[in-house]
Amino acid sequence: MTDPKQDLTAPEPGDPDLPLTAQSADRVQPRPILWIISAVAITMSLFQMYTAGIETLGLFYQRSAHLGFILFLAFLIFPITGPTKPRGLIGWIADAAFLTAAFLSGFYIFYFLDDIIDRAGWWSQTDIIMGTIATIAVLEASRRVVGLGMTIIGLIAIAYALAGPRGALPWLGDWMPGILSHRGASVDRLVGQLYLGQEGIFGLPLGVAATYVFMFVLFGAFLEVTGAGKFFIDLAFAATGRKPGGPAKAAVIASAGMGSISGSAIANVVTTGAFTIPLMKKLGYKPKEAGGIEAAASTGGQITPPLMGAGAFLISEYTNVPYIEIVMVSIFPAILYLGTVYLFVHLVAMKAGMTGMKAAELPVVRHVLAAGWQFIVPLVVLIYLLVNNISPTRVGFWAIISVIAVTALRAGFTLVFLDPRHGKPLTRARLNDAVVSGIRLVAKALELGARNAVAVSVACAVAGIIVGVVGLTGLGLKFSSMMISLSGGNLALALVFVLLASLILGMGLPVTAAYIVLIVLVGPALNQEFGIPLLIAHLVVFWYSQDSNVTPPIALAGFAGAAIAGSKPMETSIQAWKYAKGLYLIPAFMVYNPEIIMGGETWYVIWTGVIIVIGLVGFASAIEGYLFTWMDKLSRVLVVPGVVMIFNPNEVIEAGGAMLVLALLALNWFKSRQVKALVS
After folding, report:
1. Would you call 6 exposed, middle or buried from its count of C-beta atoms within 10 A (0-12, 13-18, 19+)?
2. Which is deepest, 121, 175, 293, 573, by most CB within 10 Å?
3. CB atoms near residue 20 (< 10 Å)
4. Other beta carbons within 10 Å of 503
5. Which helix (H) or strand (E) holds 675?
6. What is the predicted pLDDT for the residue at 21?
7. What is the Cα Rg of the chain in Å?
8. In which element (H, E) is residue 361 found?
9. Residues 56-103: tens digit of each pLDDT
10. Helices in 120-245 by DSSP H: which ranges?
11. DSSP run (H or E) holding 454
């Protein structure tokens, strides 16, 4: 008979947290190619570590070298024949050409940057040819790694830039509405913008991916291979397992912890959902509910500091707000979102009369902390350095060093002091084995970090193409004018348009890329025309960009949850969409009550925090029809105007809405007391 506690253990440390397509591709790769992939990935991670902590490189040197490594890895890991078929001779010939293009794309700029700068915009034919090759390589890498949708959007952007009377495709301009028309660009001008300028492929998105994001992804890989995933999951189960719906509540907490490491909602679902979803089903949750809860909770990891799926770094760069401030102002909204999902989970459990797990089936908090205290140390180091205004890139470097140090110290202490007490004396052979094991663990983390960075870096490179086209054609101002015209200057309607645009973009773009594209298009209008503070405008767009993870018809996190739960993808996605309603409400509250982010008088900030909690509790209760006991239909209906009033910036209306919701919740509590009295 197996120990029930073993059911809660995480995967063996070091299991690669790769997309399923990458795992499938690895299965059809010859062993020598896998060795080459490992060597390139490890070399890339060491290069990034060196430039982050020892000797920094100039902006274009860093970005071009990063792109060269990323594209080379992308074409090695993802064959042109797809993830399930060997390349064959034709495939190898094609991929050899793309691997050459990958090397040239990055390192041409690296080697000839001074010459390109000296030409001061008078580009040579070689520059244009290399830029064309690089653009094709980026789009093909996107097709393989991210998906066809993003590649198509990139191609549409390029075609749009070339359309117009002075462009390379003048006939295409005749098909565009007047507001979208522009004079068009030649191929040379477009390639110069995309490859040889600062607003294209090597623009801000790739710059952030090549520095901050990579180091934090690598930091997450080191935590993952050393067992942090198991630590977070066990700690979450130890804290919440005995409560009603315990595994679901543990999923919320564990997903927040894992999400702050992985930066991927789908990876989050696969990692934590493999354990939480079966336990939720065993406890009484329907399969679609279990998968939906995990998807909604895992999406919360994307908005949970410090990584926020690369969002915090991008927002910091776009707004010139220090990274640590982005992290600090994002803590309370993240708690609100995760708290809302947690409340939904609790209400579902109470409605179904669920109980928690038995204490014997759960890990003990002190045992978990004793086994995994070393994972807390790097997080403390990270926070300490950030608070002291150290560069995020340098912070990532030292955080990684701290992971290596505490893991080595723990292993050494066990080897030298603890094992001899249990009859395992220290010998040269055991010491050699420990050193070799440690080196292999570091190598695995270095490889995993580089592999995990491929998708986000490729997405940022394609996003750079789109951003470059927006800058070249003035599309951002045109899009802003369209949004103002369609909304009639109504802020609420404008937010609805932003939400719809984010959902549509999310069907073809990853979350990070969707945020980049959308903020370039609608950010100026939100900030300048509607008066939303710049930081809040970015947070709103970033939060809305998460919506595609959980909203049908394309809900990748929901689909991943459905695969594990054995439920229908659409039904699971609808459940995830319901539990993730905080993605809509909390950003809207930021807009109408900016003090929650921008600060203000202490009493008013506290008041703002209290009323949003009341509003979210009332909203969740109305959706589920339950809080302390079942809610009657009239109470559920009356909660809605109360929540709407809470979102009004007028203090009197806010107070009225809060009082209405509190009164209805108090009435529900009195009814629950009466029911208990009758039962007893």
Report:
1. exposed
2. 293
3. 12
4. 18
5. helix 651-679
6. 54
7. 26
8. none
9. 888 889 999 999 999 999 999 999 988 778 888 899 999 999 999 999
10. 125-145, 148-162, 170-173, 187-195, 204-208, 214-225, 228-240
11. helix 428-473
